[in-house]
Amino acid sequence: MGRAPCCDKANVKKGPWSPEEDSKLKDYIEKYGTGGNWIALPQKAGLKRCGKSCRLRWLNYLRPNIKHGEFTDDEDRIICTLFASIGSRWSIIAAQLPGRTDNDIKNYWNTKLKKKLMAMNAQSDLLNNTNLTNNSSLIQTPESLFSHMQYHPMRDNFLMFGGEPSCSSSDGSYGKEMKQEDHMGFQGFGASLDYGTNNGVNQWIQKQSGYSGECPLDYNLEDVKRLISSNNNSFFIDENDTQDKAMYCYYY
DNA sequence: AAAGGGTCCAACCGCGGTCGC
DNA sequence: GGCGACCGCGGTTGGACCCTT
After folding, report:
1. Chain C nucleotides with an atom closer than 7 Å to a protein C-beta
2. What are phi and psi of A110, to 5 degrees?
3. Protein A3 CA to nucleic acid B18 C1', in Å?
4. Could you tell me the fold of the domain covering A12-62?
5. Is any atom of strand B within 7 angstroms of residue A53's beta carbon?
6. Of residues A74, A70, A99, A235, the one with CA closest to residue A160
7. pLDDT per residue of chain A (252 residues) written in tens, 0 to 9
8. Is the C-alpha dihedral spanning A145, A194, A79, A220 positive or negative?
């Protein structure tokens, strides 16, 4: 049995919001707040909308200090780094970008930023990766502000490389091919990605613990900006180093 | 000018988490 | 502890707009 609907779907308006509806919602919330109950809010505000729809409209469009328009290079860097570090946790990423909403960032990533990074990959000279074998599935990004990221076509995802590599194969050595029981990780900004076996399934696993034991959420915006803007800090290794480490990373 | 395809983004949907009873 | 109601999140969709032919 499914959950009961949060509203009478037959009597709620759907689709784009009109300026009148925006005005009603904005006026009501500015006067009375949300009252901690979005389900009851539309009725009180005189709106024929679902509470969830009101909440979304307020959070993504009407609330004060929402920033619209182009994303800056700084914001790009923050999004890329956090995405590589924590994945599609848009609300957490949005928390580091004042004025941006998770929906905004999600849309921006899906429609622009991801393509931007993939285009960079396409431009990169794959011959630079001659250290990699032909069956490698990792493509390194060119030297750029995103140089610490690599696109993984088979996962349709970006991985970030930096910090100290950790690789513990079953035989205790760095292997050129990963075995089922191998375990391999790259510690990056505040978190790390591990390739290993989880319940018999080979997969990349996001480790909770990160560099120096710190969690990404322990950083405020200024910290993030400072860390990302510095190419020589301890979180990111240099290009040559990255290439060396990439040698050991093969898709199983 | 019109048609078709591509892009973008606001909004919706469904699910997991949380909270109060 | 179980249950229901609500919140918040991430994935997906629909349609408006733009671009190309």
Report:
1. 4-12
2. -70, -35
3. 16
4. Arc Repressor Mutant, subunit A (1.10.10)
5. yes
6. A235
7. 334 556 666 678 888 888 888 888 988 888 888 877 888 888 888 888 888 889 889 988 888 888 888 888 888 888 888 888 888 888 888 888 888 998 899 989 888 888 777 766 666 544 344 444 443 444 444 333 444 555 555 555 555 544 333 333 333 333 223 332 233 333 333 333 444 444 444 444 444 333 322 333 334 444 444 544 443 332 332 333 333 332 222 222
8. negative
